[in-house]
């Protein structure tokens, strides 16, 4: 896959967007990804919001570009997880399929693609995104050490 590197900078999600980052986490994502997450969040039912769990991470090959994000939903009413399983195989609550469809629909409409093996892992602009969408080039390559 060839690369047509974008000038999108890595940005601190918590400081630059109306998005929630999981407690104890620090998330850096490419500006274009953050913009798409804001659009996707506006498409969710009012009762839920995204929680960003992971962004750019030099220790994880799937997060080297800043174009991949791990996220889940939380309930606005109580701040509790929105009955979706955690990233590591927790049981699925009865309301999860409906909430998961909301997540999938919103992120897909905003241009992100999903790793079908991990419902929480989405990307834009990286090589998996280019492969999935048929784009001629990936927009984001690995970010060198900060």
UniProtKB/TrEMBL annotation:
Superkingdom: Bacteria
Matches recorded under InterPro entries: Zn_M74/Hedgehog-like (IPR009045)
Name of this chain's protein: D-alanyl-D-alanine dipeptidase
Lineage of source species: Bacteria, Bacillati, Actinomycetota, Actinomycetes, Micromonosporales
